[in-house]
Amino acid sequence: MIEQPLDATSPKPLYEQVKDFILHHIQDGTFKPHTRIPSERELAQRFGVNRLTVTKAIKELEQAGLVYVRIGKGTFVAPETYNLQLDTLMSFTEEMRQRGHEVSSRVLNAAMTEANAESAHRLCVPVGTRVAILRRVRCVNDQPIALETSTLLASACPDLFEHHDFTAESLYAALRTRYKLALAYAEQTLEARAASREEAVLLEMAERAPVLAIQRVTYDDRSRAVEYASSVYRGDRYKFRAVLKNL
Ligand code: GLP
Questions:
Q1: Which of 84, 103, 162, 215 has the smallest CB count inside 10 Å?
Q2: CATH code at 47?
């Protein structure tokens, strides 16, 4: 690891120089994704600077999405951002596996209940219709990436939670294989907003940091709305890609 001393005579502030040092090591692969970088104390000692100088450098790298801080554990190198196709009906698992990533989920809620006004409207059913609700934190390579709440018509997947463990399984795979649902198309909207406190905690990000809020209604081959999903993706980990054709 290169350890050049900082240049106190340079017009570049010391914290910028610390930032450059960390960035350089991320870019040359010395600090690899998900590995811990030296602590603020270690860096301050190494460069003979005030710890606050290092804190400022790390804060800026964190805001830029290049590192993430795990309270009590240290500062880690952020993974690359994930590119997702915007014009193909794929599940989270399919998208990520296709790119060689490990997918897992933390199930926050998996229950049969009654449709509220919002989900009833989205699924085009009366309020009170039986629905299955699945709320998960979706992780890629063990990092939380999205918070996803899927509301499904219970009549389309009556005993969904009796047969599947969604910490490891794909919802779409279950719908396709067990319930023989032909998921044909989906309508999706995206909007940028700031993370709420709860979202920030679950996604291990700063409160008010940008997220992409996505609403999806998925239809089967008879144009029946079978899933309404409301998802929040970390703004610093996701990039959507679409191919636009001239009509
Ligand atoms: C995407 C969609 C969701 C869908 C999910 C299924 O994230 N936005 O609407 O519920 O994929 O993912 P999986 O099959 O990995 O559980």
A1: 162
A2: 1.10.10.10
Q: Would you state the pLDDT for residue 101?
A: 83
pLDDT in tens, 89-121: 889 999 888 777 889 999 999 999 999 999 999
pLDDT in the model for residue 193: 96
Q: Can you give the residue range of the structural domain that contains 53?
A: 14-77
Residues of the chain with pLDDT under 50: none
Could you tell me where the beta strands, DSSP code E, fall in 30-155? 67-70, 74-77, 82-85, 103-114, 130-140, 143-153
- Residue 25 C-alpha to ligand 1 middle, in angstroms? 35
Out of 172, 179, 220, mutate this one to test ligand 1's pocket (max ligand atoms within 8 Å of CB): namely 172
Distance CA 54, CA 16 (A): 9
At 164 the three-state DSSP class reads: coil
Specify the pLDDT at position 4. Answer: 65
Cα 74 from chain centre = 20
Last residue of a domain, one of 77, 99, 124: 77
Q: What is the mean pLDDT of the chain?
A: 90
Q: Which residues lie below 8 Å from residue 97, measured CB to CB, with a gap of 6+?
A: 103
The answer to whether position 208 is within a domain reads yes
Q: How far is the CA of 172 from the centre of ligand 1 (A)?
A: 6
- Identify which of 172, 173, 186 has the alpha carbon closest to the alpha carbon of residue 217: 186
Is any ligand 1 atom within 6 A of the Cβ of residue 233?
A: no
Same domain, residue pair 67 and 88: no
Supply the CATH number for residue 173's domain: 3.40.1410.10
